[in-house]
Amino acid sequence: MTTLVIDIGGTKLAAALADSDLHLTRRREIPTPASRTADALYAALAELIAPLVSQAQRVAVASTGIIKQGVLTALNPDNLGGLSHFPLVEAISRMTQLPCIAINDAQAATWAEYHSLTTDIRDMVFLTVSTGVGGGIVSNGKLLTGTEGLAGHFGHTLADPEGPRCGCGRTGCVEVMASGRGIASAARGDLAGSTAKQIFAHAAVGNLHAQSLILRSARVLARLIADIKVVTDCQCVIVGGSIGLAEGYLRQVKTCLDEEPEVCRVPLSGAKHQHDAGLRGAALLAREMTF
Ligand code: ADP
Ligand code: BMX
Ligand code: ZN
């Protein structure tokens, strides 16, 4: 059985074919459309999967946003160019004529990373620091999705009550300060208008403002991780996403976490499946479900 796996993020759309051993081949990636229309996302997905679909028997999607009964509802529509609603499973089933399942991107990545842990871990949390800040929780070996699909949306917990307003409607969310969009929007002077990727490149060659923007994100993430430890008593936290995996970022988060009291600290590591955690998680869930 071959599964077409798709990862819908705020910055990029990725797809691949997964065999029954979860081996991924023919990975492709295109930018997420900046338009707020559902038609633009539909057209981009059609372009992405066109060369792969004839070889698949089913589809599994990991997507940014709250995924409930196959429908995507953005918690922060700013991350999807303003798009707040997309009938994911219905659209992809129509496009491919194949059975389809969908789950939140960070929840999917959590499941993939949980399955790659070698030690006897039953309680873990995954965080993605990417366009937004997403997450997922495994508690006593079970992936929590919640009644409404909201479980693990740590990006929308409070970082600073005096902070900027988040696209979700709250003020001072972790996401608005620590995410790729958050890092970019705090840039001033020569760095104003730069992407987070460009800011990392400037930091690497000694730009102090770029370095301070990254440190602010790492500090916010470390405080979030301390809160997560206190709430869940998880045995480890795994960090992914292009910011989370960027050179030197996790080291800074660890340094900030070391400033917290011992009881709030937890072992941290980078995602083993790197940028493919969402795709791998979708493939894993497809294999576990009969559809
Ligand atoms: P998505 O949110 O679509 O899943 P990513 O995980 O790639 O995508 O996160 C996108 C964010 O990461 C953007 O803000 C982008 O500028 C930033 N980014 C991409 N590549 C890098 C990199 N090599 N180093 C630092 N930041 C990066
Ligand atoms: C946002 C939210 C989450 C998502 C997280 C990371 C939307 C559209 N997305 O908090 O559902 O998991 O971003 O998403 O409200 P990514 O695009 O950065 O991978
Ligand atoms: Zn928010």
From TrEMBL:
Top-rank taxon: Bacteria
Organism expressing this protein natively: Rahnella inusitata
The name this protein goes by in its record: ROK family protein
SUPFAM superfamilies: Actin-like ATPase domain (SSF53067)
Keyword rRNA processing: no
Coiled coil, from the record: none
Keywords assigned: Carbohydrate metabolism
Gene3D superfamilies linked: 3.30.420.40
